[in-house]
Design a protein that fits this description.
Elements (H helix, E strand, L loop, with lengths): L1 E2 L36 E12 L7 E7 L6 E11 L15 E5 L2 E7 L3 E8 L7 E11 L7 E7 L4 E15 L4 E13 L4 E9 L8 E3 L4 E7 H10 L4 E4 L6 E6 L6 E6 L5 E7 L3 E5 L6 E9 L2 E9 L5
Parallel strand pairs: 1-19, 3-10
Antiparallel strand pairs: 2-4, 2-14, 4-5, 5-6, 6-7, 7-8, 9-10, 10-11, 11-12, 12-13, 13-14, 15-16, 16-19, 17-18, 17-20, 20-21
Length: 318
């Protein structure tokens, strides 16, 4: 068995937001044109994670860690970003330059370098188009956490207001996928008779297709992009035992099939590599005695795949 050694640190920006217990540098969450996705299909698996206690709904660099949370699959579908001309209801929305299809529902948007306007929806083939005669801005460019704006929105039948607030940004960590560019957005529709609130996750790179919701009772729905699941599933082709976890002084990492672990990297909250080892052994011991009590990410890159595991150092064992 080998013992993991120390090597000079360097920052890994992609992983810097994946760990608990620290602060993050605020960054612009929606920029133009990066937040407007290209035309194409987005297969997703919808999951119900039930009520998640203590879910954080404000801040920057938040980690929504659902990796140990049980879930049920409630459906799979393919969202699509379309040229409005390729949809059956384009005549109702002549100023739209982007259409979003969610199952049989179509949403139509007008985009610019300053905002995305919600032009209306078509809920089904049997219902009429709901056309916003006074479109509301659902995204501003640029938009940061804590930004909020209110827009009038009107149809032929009613007048209301849409209040949009960027609540939080960070990463959603699942057992089989990591969504590292998550943005939590609240949309509050205020009408003369009622107020409707939705709290929805988007990705920085896709401000039009929702991939999850936080319900009013704390329930969580995540619509996981299938390419993220496939990438992790294909990479995580081997089993690893890590223990104890939490660990006080050291932790042992072992491949259960006896094959070489390969390269191991222990990454802290700032995205810095604090331990690095390349080994041909199937088992190593990581010395944590000089590391602060905190959560870390352990990345194991073997010849046949990659595993990402959360590791906690706690002197009292919890």
């Amino acid at each position: 068995m080998e013992r993991l050694s120390l090597r000079p640190m360097r920052t890994i920006p992609l992983l810097s937001c994946l760990l608990l217990g620290g602060t993050s540098i605020a960054q612009t969450v929606f920029t133009y044109p990066d937040a407007i996705p290209a035309f194409g299909a987005y297969p997703v698996e919808a999951r119900n994670y039930g009520v998640v206690s203590g879910l954080i709904t404000a801040g920057t660099g938040v980690v929504w860690d659902l990796s140990a949370q049980n879930y049920s699959v409630i459906g799979s579908t393919t969202d699509s970003i379309l040229d409005p001309a390729a949809t059956p209801y384009t005549a109702d929305f002549p100023s739209a330059d982007v259409a979003v299809r969610l199952v049989d529902q179509f949403g139509y948007y007008g985009t610019s370098d300053t905002e995305v306007l919600d032009l209306g929806t078509r809920l089904s083939a049997s219902s009429p188009s709901s056309i916003n005669t006074d479109p509301a801005s659902v995204v501003h460019f640029p938009a940061d956490v804590d930004d909020t704006w209110t827009d009038a929105v009107a149809t032929a039948a009613s007048n209301s207001q849409l209040q949009v607030t960027i609540l939080a940004e960070g990463a959603i960590v699942l057992a089989d996928a990591v969504i590292d560019d998550a943005v939590l957005v609240e949309r509050r529709y205020i009408t003369p008779s009622f107020t409707s609130v939705s709290t929805t996750w988007f990705r920085r790179s896709n401000c039009l297709v929702p991939f999850g919701n936080v319900l009013s009772n704390g329930g969580v729905i995540v619509r996981v992009p299938e390419e993220l699941m496939s990438a992790v599933t294909e990479a995580a082709a081997f089993d690893v035992r890590v223990g104890p976890n939490p660990a006080a002084h050291s932790v042992q990492v072992e491949r259960t099939d006896g094959a070489a672990l390969g390269e191991l990297r222990l990454i802290d909250i700032a995205g810095r590599e604090v331990r690095v080892l390349t080994t041909s052994s199937s088992r190593v011991e990581i010395d944590l005695s000089g590391s602060p009590e905190a959560a870390y990410m352990l990345r194991i890159a073997s010849a046949d795949g990659v595993r990402m595991m959360r590791l906690v150092r706690a002197v009292n064992g919890h």
